Amino acid sequence: MAQFKAISLSSSINLACYGPKRSDSSLQFQFSDYRFIFDTLLHSDNLICSRKLSTFHELSGKSSSLHGNAIVSNNVCMTLTPKNQGIQAVLSSNSGTDVSTVTKGGGLRGKLNKVVLAYSGGLDTSVIVPWLRENYGCEVVCFTADVGQGIKELDGLEAKAKASGACQLVVKDLKEEFVKDYIFPCLRAGAIYERKYLLGTSMARPVIAKAMVDVAREVGADAVSHGCTGKGNDQVRFELTFFALNPELNVVAPWREWDITGREDAIEYAKKHNVPVPVTKKSIYSRDRNLWHLSHEGDILEDPANEPKEDMYMMSVDPKDAPDKPQYVKIGIESGIPVSLDGKTYSPAELLATLNEIGGKHGIGRIDMVENRLVGMKSRGVYETPGGTILFNAVRELESLTLDRETIQVKDSLALKYAELVYAGRWFDPLRESMDAFMEKITETTTGSVTLKLYKGSVSVTGRTSAYSLYREDISSFESGDIYNQADAAGFIRLYGLPMRVRAMLNKGI
Q1: Distances (CA, A) of 179 to 65, 339, 359, 495
Q2: Considering only the top CATH level, what class is 288-473?
Q3: Where are the domains of the chain?
Q4: Does residue 404 have an active-site annotation?
Q5: What is the pTM of this model?
Q6: Res. 89: pLDDT tops 80
Q7: Residue 26 pLDDT level (bands cut at 50, 70, 90)
Q8: Distance between CA 236 and CA 60 in Å, rounded?
Q9: I need a surface site. Which of 49, 153, 406, 428 has the fewest CB within 10 A?
Q10: Which residue ranges does UniProt annotate as crossing the membrane (predicted)?
Q11: pLDDT in tens, 115-129
């Protein structure tokens, strides 16, 4: 039997009781003299508190409702477990960040052992850490992927994570893997979504989610979690990757579960759990940055009629302010994959980073579009993809030399489906993998170099060369040659145009 006495009246207590219904037991709560008494505390059961007992402010429910399972209020979770397990109380201060882990019984919504959370250090993910602990009684391992978002985004992350209540922060540098294994295959395939979007965010999510699955295995986690909203594409991209790589993992998506509806609610929750609120200035735009691109959404962009403000852009200068003298760059390509710049070989990530700087200086790669989200709604976004725009133009232009007409047509038709699969988060779908094998095969001879001129926001191709070029000057020349006899064209035209000629004869009754 356990007794709790002399609990002062200054704040609220939340109580969740779980246990078998017992006809021979009763619970009575009394508020007089600022105390409550468990007259008969199911003497054969255990009491587990998942948070520190604070003083009474509100306690609802009748004693009869506490037989079996009941949640009475919201601050403290008490769990009555089967007998012969002893009494365990794991407590934490209301003024601290510690929402204690309940090793038996779980949190308000269930029980998980350890959760790997996709963590950025921003307000939302900082709040998710204590929310997971409170609601699932679990340890939280924060995971951050470096996909080229910038060093400032990584500063102080470990301190932030631990201050929020995480037991560990894992950071992995995925830049080279991201470019080599995700960006470059899309580039080789010519994947572009709805005529404009070069899939920057779409390609980043599977590499991050894959790393989360790996970390979950390494730390022995039984669940993964993300901070994506229920209205966007990213929730699908993360979770389809989880499903494909480890279907046994539990997935927790707080934005689809909790009562937090916006920034003010999140700040209030953070203060309540003494989680340091990020002091960085809140951007009026929703942004996602990686080595391939920077996206902008929200604020005035939500009205498609509004022109973006110039101070919104971060990777590229206004084309009118770009240098008055054009810059020429020569991109070396091997089997459809960029490998060098101006004769110098770079690693995938280094090449892209270098071209981002060059392209941004010339105002290259700004795209403003209204796209169809996977979940059904339209959204307006503005993208900066300076290096990616240069590379996309270079690879596509080299294919004009190395691929024949039929191959280009089939490749372009498949590129649309390829882009759709990537946008929808189906990176690890066998269909995309099979299409990638096709793309790899047909671009085996797409090797050579392309020279481009960068000038005030535009990319112009000025030269291309390949040892596998199907272009023959001796055939294409207007001068007479042995291979192409111009007189042969007459018979070709008559045969090629025969269906049209027959139809016209029919219409005229000939």
Answers
A1: 58, 12, 17, 48
A2: alpha beta
A3: 114-174+200-281, 288-473, 476-505
A4: no
A5: 0.78
A6: no
A7: very low
A8: 39
A9: 406
A10: none
A11: 999 999 999 999 999
